[in-house]
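MODEL INPUT / OUTPUT PAIR
PAIR INDEX: 1
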Amino acid sequence: MTAAPVHTEGPRTVAVTGSTGLIGTALVAQLRASGYAVRRLLRSAKGATASDVVWDPARGALPPMALEGTDAIVHLAGEPVAHRWTAERKRAIRESRVRSTELLAQAIGALARKPRVLLAGSAIGYYGDRGDALLDEASAPGSDFLAATCVEWERATAPAADAGVRVVLLRTGIVLSPRGGALGRLLPIFRLGAGGPIGSGRQWMSWISLGDHVRAMLHALVTESMHGPANLVAPNPVTNADFATTLGRVLARPAFMPVPAFVLELLYGEMARATLLAGQRALPKSLMANRFEFAHPTLEGALRAELRRDP
């Protein structure tokens, strides 16, 4: 991961939720390497250190001192999406995001000494499946389950914004890392030479390397002009077919075995239709306007960089 500069200004103590996930783990490591003090908000006391705080967002439980003395909060917690969606799973996906955000935002608003910034998780699923349309942060939301969830998720930050806290809504794309996420699941298949496009392969994939995603969050922490939604994606989205071809080339393996759409729909139902077979062609307008420089602006460069870190 490209090192972020040690900060001399900006937030000093950062509270992080979702710190044990793929993005959160990398973020916490980079924050500490950059000189920040990190306070993790954990849902379990297992593995907690003296600087961590245990909370239970499902029960609305947040210790009064959890956010005291923080200069910034990064909220990444939420139930995974990549499973077949039952009614219970959809409820968990929505409530784990919306309720936890409401709890944090209300607590921030009540603080006597408020943090300077809240970076709140969201996703480019906000836009729904939009075909070939180019999307930026001003584009309208979609109408499917994920889009509706993202709208509520972002709206839940209102108490913090109303209290005068700078809020950045992190509309995250497909984060590339061999340690997890979409790439982590695809690698074993592609390394066997059994990879290929999904469905038609025409759906767009707005991706970002894990390294650039973490650097973008650190950039948002200290860039006062950043506020509101920000697409955390690289500037060069690709179709799913191009993604498969590029990953095959990087791995020096064939990648021409398509996965039929009906198979995915049988296995995953609505989740497949809303994620695997759908797409967004999103651009990082906010990041670029705020002078963020991507270390990995092209897919092939990002894949080669991330796979070099594959343990």
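PAIR INDEX: 2
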Amino acid sequence: MDEPERHNVRPASDWLQDTIDAFYAPADSTPIPTMLWEKTRSKVAFRKGEISVWAGVNGHGKSMFLSQVTLDLCHQQERVMVASFEMKPVQQMKRMSRQAYAGREPTVQFLQSLHSWTDGRLWIYDHVGAVEWRKLIAVMRYAIKTHGITQFVIDSLMKCVKGETDFDAQKDFVNELCAFAQAHNVHIHLVHHVRKGESEHHVPGKFDIKGAGAITDQVDNVFIVWRNKKAEQDKKGDPTCFLACEKQRNGEYEGKFGFWFDIESQQYLESVNAAPVRYDLSANSASRK
């Protein structure tokens, strides 16, 4: 009997060239997308076929942080679809416009340039409120076929699964997302919440993420965004935000990065004395200026 699965059993030598490429990237290969801060650029990557969970306490800026990351991805010629079920598209673009402009009041000319620049880079799923996760998967499949999407942002998991205690549904949804990312060779960013700690001064970790423990087991990368409210009040120059890379399955780095949130531009800055940087909308290089 001819077993179909026998075709998946191959000699290890079949992967020789792929292994060589993993050590020595071909000169014409496309760099793996990343975040464009210097401190993170060589340590974290958003690889195709993977899923990243972005978690944090409610109100600590995980969606705000991911908005700037989305701009970075667009600047690296990625084709991004954002499905935010908690914020209307115009509010998303208002926030992203401030971040791109590096200031509170972008000019009309800049807004026109930015929205023109996003063509071919950024798409938004126009839906606010709960959504059945199977419908979302169908929308994502359509977005790949029609627009060639390479990166998805889903905000948030709880808008796609009914009930915080339905762990089986959460597990099924995340498992389907993982299979989808691998099958279509895309990266998925999934926003989620953490359980309430003893206080907002408690820094959460991956074991504080709400819901099924299988979520962090299934995904490839886990990031925690934490707002340092004490530093905001003390004004002594300590980071006002930390990004913790709690898990990176196919990367060597795990650790924390400190950032300083600039309220005028809504950008996260690399140092206490850094100034917000306006995104260069004419450039095709992977940089902000």
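PAIR 2 NOTE: The longest helix spans residues 167-184.
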